[in-house]
Design goal:
With 223 residues, this protein is mainly α. The protein has ten helices and two strands. β1 and β2 form a beta hairpin. The protein is elongated and about 65 Å long. This is TetR/AcrR family transcriptional regulator. Keywords: DNA-binding, Transcription, Transcription regulation. It holds the Pfam family TetR_C_13.
């Protein structure tokens, strides 16, 4: 799943198509900017920082991006796609609660491997930009909506297969799971451990499991 990109594409800038080398240069600038903004925050990352880290001149940077806002928009698209690509690894074949637990293990495993350093790329950008940049907030909201939709679609497919009792609000459960995951990721960054993340995800998945039919519940792998 790829959300529509409203920023200048990697193939064209200002109506002009880029050469393969131009595409490579633009992508490198965006990747460098994304890494710096993840480490330092958007406001504390200057254009000069990005130029130095990418090894480019001011004219090169402004050839691809009209201003810092345009570069931030490209960073959001890159980070949003990176986050969803990881989620696809665990959610593309969400057919039962056991798959939710496997996705939970994936998320917690990634945080463990990172030693809980750094936050969710989308969450960090949202914290930096939501109150200062309305366009960026709307762009971030689309990416979070795409993540929510992955969970909703998975739970809806389980409901269609008759795994949930009548009246189960799978959309609300999906949103709760996304919110719990985001909160847990933030606290894992603050505390440098995954306790809050595992507690949050485990609690919501257990709540989802409470809505299973008797037959579906019997098929769940017990943890």
């Amino acid at each position: 799943m790829t959300e529509p990109d409203l920023t200048p594409t990697a193939a064209a800038v200002n109506g002009h198509r880029l050469t393969p080398k131009g595409i490579q240069t633009r992508d490198r600038i965006v990747a460098v900017a994304a890494n710096l903004m993840q480490e330092r925050g958007v406001a504390r990352t200057t254009i000069e920082d990005i130029q130095a880290a990418a090894g480019i001149s001011s004219s090169q940077l402004y050839h691809y991006f009209a201003d810092k806002g345009a570069l931030v928009a490209a960073v959001i698209e890159l980070q949003g796609q990176r986050v969803l690509d990881v989620q696809h690894l665990g959610l593309d074949r969400l057919t039962c609660v056991d798959d939710l637990w496997r996705w939970r293990d994936l998320v917690v495993g990634i945080r463990t491997a990172q030693n809980c350093v750094g936050g969710c790329p989308l969450g960090s950008l949202a914290a930096d930009l939501s109150e200062t940049d309305a366009l960026a907030r709307a762009q971030l909201a689309r990416w979070f909506a795409a993540w929510d939709r992955m969970l909703r679609d998975g739970l809806a497919s389980m409901a269609a297969a008759g795994q949930f009792t009548a009246g189960t609000d799978t959309d609300r459960l999906a949103l709760a799971l996304l919110a719990a995951t985001q909160g847990g990721l933030l606290l894992s960054q603050v505390n440098r451990d995954t306790a809050a993340l595992t507690a949050a995800m485990d609690t919501v998945i257990a709540q989802i499991s409470a809505h299973l039919t008797e037959a579906a519940d019997k098929a769940v792998r017990r943890r």
